[in-house]
Design brief:
The model has no long low-confidence stretch (mean pLDDT 93). The protein is an alpha/beta fold. It has a single domain, classed as Rossmann fold (3-Layer(aba) Sandwich). The relative contact order is 0.20. The chain is built from 6 helices and 6 strands. The structure holds magnesium ion and zinc ion.
């Protein structure tokens, strides 16, 4: 496996990056205005440069895992099957760029119902059960919200905040940006940081 070693800042251990955990909405696809949910493929609008960025991570031998809170399921707005279908279409769309996501994990629950709603660690545990070589020290969490960055921090991963559309940032985005080791405008730029030396 080809790995990459990047300087994340003072007091951040330098270790090769082997796994990148990606939040979905706001990182891979456009976040909808607050309170609206991505319910189906029709709502799924890939952000610029994302398939190419994922393909670059793939070619570098870095595992790409999606971890997504989907409380719209608990709210009855769509079903888990709709999410699975969306992820199949996303994978097919990425394949046109020779890009792939190695694993999808999502939390279908609302608040305080489970151990898998980020920032809780359940989605990480599910991924690590399937890919035993995953370890926090060699992982990076990339997300656009405070629960994403807290998820990564609590597990001991390095973290990257994606700024995205300022009009669609959630409350807590500024705190997340401060807490993260790094911040970039897009996944494309974050991948550039991880892969360029
Ligand atoms: Mg998000
Ligand atoms: Zn859950």
């Amino acid at each position: 496996m080809i790995t990459t070693v990047r300087e994340f800042g003072m007091n951040v251990p330098i270790a090769a990056v082997e796994t990148v955990f990606l939040d979905r909405d706001g990182v891979i696809n456009e976040k909808l205005p607050e309170g609206q949910f991505v319910r189906s493929w029709a709502d799924f609008h890939m952000l610029p440069g994302v398939p190419e960025a994922i393909a670059r991570l793939n070619r570098a031998g870095i595992r790409v895992i999606v971890v997504s809170n989907q409380s719209g399921i608990a709210r009855g707005l769509y079903r888990a099957d709709d999410v699975l279908e969306m992820h199949r279409k996303l994978q097919a769309s990425l394949a046109q760029y020779e890009a792939r996501i190695d694993g999808f994990y999502f939390c279908p629950h609302g608040n305080h119902q489970c151990n898998c709603r980020k920032p809780l660690p359940g989605l990480y545990e599910q991924a690590a059960a399937e890919f035993p070589s995953i370890a926090p020290a060699t992982s990076v969490m990339i997300g656009d919200s405070l629960p994403d960055i807290e998820f990564g921090k609590r597990l001991g991963m390095r973290t990257i905040f994606i700024e995205g559309n300022p009009e669609r940032q959630k409350p807590g985005a500024e705190a997340a940006a401060m807490l993260a080791n790094r911040r970039f405008a897009s996944l494309d730029q974050a991948a550039g940081f991880l892969l360029t030396d």
